[in-house]
Design a protein that fits this description.
about 325 residues, mainly alpha, MetI-like fold, 15 helices
């Protein structure tokens, strides 16, 4: 199977998947209790205003018709207008997505910097104190709740030591140094959880590779253990980590809600929370759809990379 055919087959799966996601997103949204027109009409809930809002946003039309109108707009690049503040949803996403994207990138850098070395150590020296310590750190990263770790870091580094700001976000275009400083704690909080998962997968993959025939052959040739690990074992062991990294990166983009709330970061998390509280259908649907699309595309890229580096799939 060549790369072109493999890519086309994956693209053929993406289109119906995205269509199914759009149906689920739109349908589940309408199962929420309450009337969005009433929620948008203010405290008095004037019947005339409520009816006007239903007519304006099409709430009084059949769900199928509403879905068709919404999907048509999405295909044309129109994600609608926020019911609450009358701002284009596309503009809102364009403002919030880079913030969450930057946080996710920094978090993934932290996760890889911690997870891959710990996984290698845990596999190579699995019966030693160092290996057991690496396993303990990985288990701690998975087990410790993000909200607790975030609060503890704020108490230590912001309140007690005064080294880092407790909350807020400075755009990279305004001040690069302050931008990096404001992301240290939230990136570490998110990154440690992912690092634990990467450590365990890297350890399992390294153990499997180190017991393979070609590694034993490399050792029999007299190669040093460092060369055996770096040249022969590591590349093959990192193949499943490629897929894992894309999945976890997609999860960071869509699942950093709690961390963004703790550190008051104006990203996707705050946007979706505000939209849910305000029953802003257009924003909720667009944010979830964009997050799902990014997740699917990241998995698509991971499949292509995995195919490119794994000769067995090309055979």
């Amino acid at each position: 199977m060549n790369l072109v055919f493999f890519t086309l087959r994956r693209i053929g799966l993406i289109v119906p998947t995205l269509l199914l996601v759009s149906v689920i997103v739109f349908s589940l949204q309408h199962l929420l209790p309450g009337d969005p027109a009433i929620a948008l009409s203010g405290d008095e809930h004037d019947p005339a205003v409520v009816e006007h809002l239903r007519e304006k946003y099409g709430f009084n039309r059949p769900v199928v018709v509403q879905y068709g109108m919404w999907l048509g707009g999405v295909l044309e690049g129109d994600l609608g207008v926020s019911y609450r503040n009358q701002i284009s949803v596309l503009d809102l996403i364009a403002t919030k997505l880079p913030v969450t994207l930057e946080l996710a990138i920094f978090s993934m850098i932290v996760a890889l910097a911690i997870g891959v070395p710990l996984g290698i150590v845990a596999a190579v020296r699995r019966d030693s104190f160092v290996g057991l310590t690496a396993n303990m750190i990985a288990l701690s990263g998975i087990s410790v709740p993000h909200f607790w770790l975030g609060i503890m870091m704020i108490l230590l580094f912001s309140v007690t030591l005064g080294w880092l700001p407790s909350s807020g976000f400075v755009p990279i275009t305004e001040d690069l140094q302050q931008n990096l400083v404001s992301l240290i704690m939230p990136a570490f909080v998110l990154g440690t959880g992912v690092a634990g998962v990467i450590t365990r997968h890297t350890r399992a993959a390294m153990r499997q590779v180190l017991s393979s025939d070609y590694v034993r052959t490399a050792r029999a040739k007299g190669l040093t253990e460092r060369k055996v690990i770096n040249k022969h074992a590591l590349r093959n062991a990192l193949m499943p980590v490629i897929t894992l990294t894309s999945i976890e990166f997609g999860r960071l983009l869509s699942g950093a809600i709690l961390t963004e709330q703790i550190f008051s970061i104006p990203g996707f998390g705050k946007l979706i929370v505000d939209a849910v509280f305000n029953r802003d259908y257009a924003v909720i649907q667009a944010v979830v759809l964009v997050a799902a699309t990014l997740y699917i595309l990241l998995n698509f890229v991971a499949d292509i990379l995995y195919y490119a580096v794994n000769p067995r799939l090309r055979g």
